[in-house]
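> call design_seq(struct)
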């Protein structure tokens, strides 16, 4: 009789232990969920770092089902008239949830309203993101609705947050000049600072063309890393980095809508395009500007239309 009683007690404590284990897992899950929800709600009430006081921008907001965002990489280091290393346009379609990425070569010889013919990135130096928006519209017929200026230090921190073990890339040759570090040739895991050097390097035979390829490569890989389950709970912290290192006129609800599609894998793979496309430019040189890209604007306008058209 006593033996039976002891057996029942053991069974009872086994059930209690199992219940406590399940409860612990449930509580941990709730904490992660509330972190995610809390950070998201907080971000809705606290807009991203705005730059209207520093920059004006006349792009029309949410007029269409598609959104074009001017993405600029900044490392001004206190300069009053800083140019931008990176000029991209991210295209998002609310209906299809697709994301497309257009890289614009900074040395294209273009007409800058009020400043004659210049390199494309000079437009930002003369008049910030608004003049760059106008320049892209005048030369390529592309409407842009929002802009985001990303500080390079924020890029480093975002990479280290999302992928603490780094991202694997195949460095084609040793890279050192102009990036304050040396990257050895071959496959390796690069962390935030090293990855920034990888996407900024331009002193080889491919020059800016190689840099654009690496930028598109890294953005696509970062997007895939952001989809992993363990990164969902980092979303509030990532928003905190955006508050600190990103200047934008984009409303937070639009940003969260796009972010939600990325996290839920609705957006699929990122499609990419480089402007000017192959066969549509010539290398030229002008006094005061140096080497530039002379562009066939009509061919590249058509390339943009075809790229953004839903098949």
């Amino acid at each position: 009789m006593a033996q039976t009683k002891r057996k029942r007690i053991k069974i009872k404590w086994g059930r209690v232990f199992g219940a406590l284990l399940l409860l612990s897992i449930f509580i941990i899950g709730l904490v992660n969920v509330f972190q995610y929800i809390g950070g998201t709600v907080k971000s809705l009430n606290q807009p991203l770092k705005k730059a209207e006081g520093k920059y004006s921008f006349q792009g029309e907001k949410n007029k269409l089902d598609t959104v074009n965002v001017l993405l600029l990489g900044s490392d001004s280091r206190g300069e009053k008239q800083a140019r931008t290393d990176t000029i991209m346009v991210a295209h998002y379609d609310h209906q299809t949830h697709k994301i497309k990425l257009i890289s614009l070569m900074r040395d294209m010889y273009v007409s800058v309203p009020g400043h004659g013919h210049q390199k494309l990135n000079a437009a930002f130096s003369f008049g910030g993101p608004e003049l760059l928006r106008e320049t892209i519209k005048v030369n390529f017929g592309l409407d842009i609705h929002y802009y985001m200026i990303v500080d390079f230090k924020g890029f480093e921190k975002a990479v280290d947050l999302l992928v603490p073990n780094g991202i694997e890339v195949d460095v084609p040759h040793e890279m050192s000049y102009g990036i304050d570090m040396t990257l050895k040739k071959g496959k390796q895991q690069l962390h935030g600072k090293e990855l920034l050097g990888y996407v900024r390097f331009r002193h080889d035979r491919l020059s800016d063309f190689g840099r654009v390829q690496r930028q598109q490569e890294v953005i696509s890989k970062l997007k895939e890393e952001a989809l992993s389950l363990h990164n969902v709970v980092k979303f509030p912290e990532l928003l905190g980095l955006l508050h600190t290192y990103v200047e934008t006129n984009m409303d937070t609800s639009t940003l969260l809508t796009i972010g939600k599609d990325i996290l839920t894998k609705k957006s699929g793979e990122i499609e990419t395009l480089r402007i000017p496309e192959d066969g549509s430019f010539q290398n030229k040189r002008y006094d005061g500007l140096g080497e530039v890209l002379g562009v066939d604007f009509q061919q590249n306008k058509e390339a943009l239309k075809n790229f953004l058209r839903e098949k």
